[in-house]
Amino acid sequence: MKLSVGTVLSLIAATASMVNAHATLQYINDNSDVVRAPPSNNPVMDVTSSDMACNVNGGTPKSSVLTVAAGSSVTLEWHHGGRDTQAIDPSHKGPVITYLAKVPDATTATNPASLKWFKIYQDGLSGETWGVDKLVANNGKYTHTIPSSIPSGDYLIRSEIIALHAAGTYPGAQFYMGCGQLRVTGGGNANPPTVSLPGAYKGTDAGIQISIYYPKVTNYIVPGPAVFSG
Predict the structure, then answer these.
(1) Main-chain dihedrals φ then ψ at residue 79, nearest 5 degrees
(2) Considering the domain boundaries, does residue 122 fall inside one?
(3) Which CATH number does the domain housing residue 112 bear?
(4) pLDDT tens for residues 176-192?
(5) Is the residue at 41 inside a domain?
(6) What is the pLDDT of residues 46-69, one digit of tens each?
(7) Which residues contact 121 (CB under 8 A, 6 or more apart)?
(8) Which one GO biological process term can you cite for this protein (predicted)?
(9) Is 151 inside a domain boundary?
(10) 10 Å Cβ neighbour count for 84?
(11) 1 Cβ neighbours under 8 A, 6+ residues apart
(12) Which structural domain range is residue 187 located in?
């Protein structure tokens, strides 16, 4: 089939728009100094890659930590460009997830792929609304609680978006993740079950290799472990 010049140009523009609509974690409680920003907003697509932990630059510590009380709320904020841009292209539908990993000192912790992570939040599919839909509607922000029972000390927090618009085959799902540095105070003595990243996901997981449009998904299983409620 021969395409017209106008159609070709439209496809090029659409592709450029999709690339520009990739996303990065940029703020935690309005603080950007504690976020280990990746060098670009491109996704990771190989679930076995060490970049699955905290993205390409996630092993580079920052000098600051954000102090939060156990049981308090944190707000994580995503954008595809600067803060005045949308969170991520609305077509990139999928879940929004948060993990924590305990570390001796968040300002010196390297090699996040070697850490043990536990999931503290997930927002998958509710009716016809995805976690990403809510993120976009809320200007890139989502808020949840730090479990009140986890031990005090330093943590890396890992925020993740899994975009499923092209996930009918593997690799196809796009994984966007960013990590930040927290110091939790007033905690307890819980010992949450942990997983490794990479390791917690398989390319064949029902929530990773999935066609969300044909047939339209009505029941979605968020990949990874269960949420630790604390």
Answers:
(1) -150, 155
(2) yes
(3) 2.70.50.70
(4) 999 999 999 999 999 99
(5) yes
(6) 999 999 999 999 999 999 999 999
(7) 96, 97, 98, 144, 227
(8) cellulose catabolic process
(9) yes
(10) 7
(11) none
(12) 21-196
